[in-house]
């Protein structure tokens, strides 16, 4: 700042920031103290709505560097050559807690990355788990209402939470992960991240493959037990954010290796499960991890509100060479994030510096609340027009996706296998991990009603009788 003069919002000097103007030394305040009024009025509006889910979070800047060639799968400019480096911003979060919640809670962790590519912003808005509780977006607001506070008591409710989860057998896979030893990562650096959904990659020949994204931590996996987490929370509600800040400040930059799994359209047709089912993983034996590059976080934001609170990630933000899949959950999310951000931040939220593209861009939209750039000046914003602007760019069109069958509300729950993959996960655990799973589940179920506990035991038993028996014993319901 060349002129450090302290001014009000319209640039006039503030003469007194200490004493309110009054009628006489002991009299009432005067309405003409416009600085007091401006100061209080701005203060009254300093809080914006928190994110409906993932309200508590922390961010950092960094970069992504390509180490392996995947141009046979995608023409995305970010992957165009080995050594190519792209700036990024990422935000970690917990899911159910409010903005002031403690970090070290048993919960999923959000893992949202915004790559500022030369062809626009590409966001992967994932979690630290490869699957989710269900596979139809119709259920998402219900999840929110089940895991957030009870409408009568205002308290978190194990009864609501487990009533909902146990009535959805397809949730068992995700519930098993969250109740396992990985359910409380010690901090954000020591956990993996996943794009979770199936996405598309499109190459220069305009051929499509299906992909999943895996970010594997180079710091190793480290988790808290319930007891360790309780001790941490008692002393520090910001343990994961603090860990991220301190690691970056001391130059110990966290890194993740990005891998993809690839499935051809042909393989998708004969894959054992629906390849677009978010409650299932693609077995690594069949679809091996293919290494792509390294993500590093190396700069902590200068201002939490400006950069972290106002960050807006969306799975809808893709670039040429990356595409969506028919995953219903992904399709629902394509609407929900931008919609939430227009409400939370305003229609011009993409102009906020952390959200703005870093490449040259020219968007068609104009006007709207808080438009702070030149609003396209005199540029024509209708099409067709005689200037030939805003025309189609067919070179960016994706290959057509073959769809068949009637439009209907298909119940893909009826004849499906909800238990094989959670059972496999259970059988992969060591006896110690299995005991932790039982004990964590019993503690988390707390005072949930007995019939809800029994329903969950029955689900676990279908995955593996030993899983059901272990949870039943831990609940004292053997
Ligand atoms: C945040 C909706 C499923 C990961 C949010 C927000 C909404 C939302 C409205 C707040 C956005 C904002 O205000 O900026 C939904 C819906 C879902 C869904 C409707 C299902 C139909 C998922 C899944 C994942 C996920 C499956 C992970 C694989 C996240 C993350 C954030 C978030 C990481 C926080 C992003 C940030 O750090 O700003 N979600 N979500 N969500 N969601 Fe979802």
Automatic annotation (TrEMBL):
List, as start-end ranges, the regions of compositional bias called Polar residues: 1-22
Residues bound to heme are 337
Where do the catalytic residues lie?
A: 54, 127
**Class of this enzyme:** oxidoreductase
EC number(s) given by UniProt: 1.11.1.6
Q: Name one Pfam family in it.
A: Catalase-rel
The record's annotation in SMART domains points to:
Catalase
A GO term, aspect molecular function: metal ion binding
Q: Which SUPFAM superfamilies match?
A: Heme-dependent catalase-like
Q: Where is this region: Disordered?
A: 1-23
Q: Which residues form the Catalase core domain?
A: 7-391
Any one GO biological process = hydrogen peroxide catabolic process
Q: Which GO terms describe its cellular component?
A: cytoplasm; periplasmic space
Q: Which reaction does this chain catalyze? A: 2 H2O2 = O2 + 2 H2O
Biological function: Decomposes hydrogen peroxide into water and oxygen; serves to protect cells from the toxic effects of hydrogen peroxide.
Per the record, the similarity remark reads: Belongs to the catalase family.
- Write the protein's name: catalase
Q: Which organism is it from?
A: Pelagibacterium lacus
């Amino acid at each position: 700042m060349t002129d450090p003069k302290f001014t009000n919002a319209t640039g006039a000097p503030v003469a007194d920031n200490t004493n309110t103007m009054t009628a006489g030394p002991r009299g009432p305040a005067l309405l003409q103290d416009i600085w007091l009024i401006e100061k209080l009025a701005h203060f009254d509006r300093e809080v914006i709505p928190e994110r409906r889910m993932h309200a508590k979070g922390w961010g950092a800047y960094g970069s992504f560097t390509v180490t392996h060639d995947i141009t046979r799968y995608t023409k995305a400019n970010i992957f165009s050559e080995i050594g190519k480096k792209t700036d990024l911003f990422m935000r970690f979060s917990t899911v159910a807690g409010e903005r002031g919640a403690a970090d070290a809670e048993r919960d999923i962790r959000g893992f949202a990355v915004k790559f500022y590519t030369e062809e626009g912003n590409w966001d992967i808005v994932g979690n630290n788990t490869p699957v989710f509780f269900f596979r139809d977006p119709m259920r998402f607001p219900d999840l929110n209402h089940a895991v957030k506070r009870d409408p009568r008591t205002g308290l978190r409710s194990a009864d609501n939470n487990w009533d909902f989860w146990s009535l959805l057998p397809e949730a068992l896979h995700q519930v098993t992960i969250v109740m396992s030893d990985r359910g409380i990562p010690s901090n954000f650096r020591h956990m993996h991240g996943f794009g979770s959904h199936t996405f598309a990659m499109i190459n220069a020949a305009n051929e499509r493959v299906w992909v999943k994204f895996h970010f594997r931590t180079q710091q190793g996996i480290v988790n808290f037990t319930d007891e360790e987490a309780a001790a941490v929370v008692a002393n520090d509600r910001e343990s994961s954010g603090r860990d991220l800040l301190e690691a970056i400040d001391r130059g110990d930059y966290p890194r993740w290796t990005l891998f993809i799994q690839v499935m051809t359209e042909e393989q998708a047709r004969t894959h054992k499960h629906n390849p677009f089912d978010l409650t299932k993983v693609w077995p690594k034996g069949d679809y091996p991890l293919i290494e792509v590059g390294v993500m590093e976080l190396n700069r902590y934001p200068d201002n939490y509100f400006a950069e972290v609170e106002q960050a807006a990630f969306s799975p809808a933000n893709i670039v040429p060479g990356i595409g969506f899949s028919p995953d219903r959950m992904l399709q629902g999310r394509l609407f929900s994030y931008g919609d939430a951000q227009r409400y939370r931040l305003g229609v011009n939220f993409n102009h906020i510096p952390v959200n703005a593209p870093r490449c040259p861009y020219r968007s068609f939209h104009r006007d709207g609340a808080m438009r702070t750039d030149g609003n396209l000046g005199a540029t024509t914003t209708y099409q067709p027009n005689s200037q030939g602007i805003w025309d189609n760019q067919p070179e960016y069109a994706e290959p057509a996706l073959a769809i068949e069958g009637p439009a209907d509300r298909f119940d893909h729950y009826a004849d499906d296998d909800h238990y094989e993959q959670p059972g496999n996960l259970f059988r992969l655990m060591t006896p110690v991990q299995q005991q932790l799973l039982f004990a964590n589940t019993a503690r988390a179920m707390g005072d949930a009603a007995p019939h809800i506990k029994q329903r969950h035991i029955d689900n676990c038993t279908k995955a593996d009788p030993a899983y059901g028996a272990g949870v039943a014993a831990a609940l004292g319901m053997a």
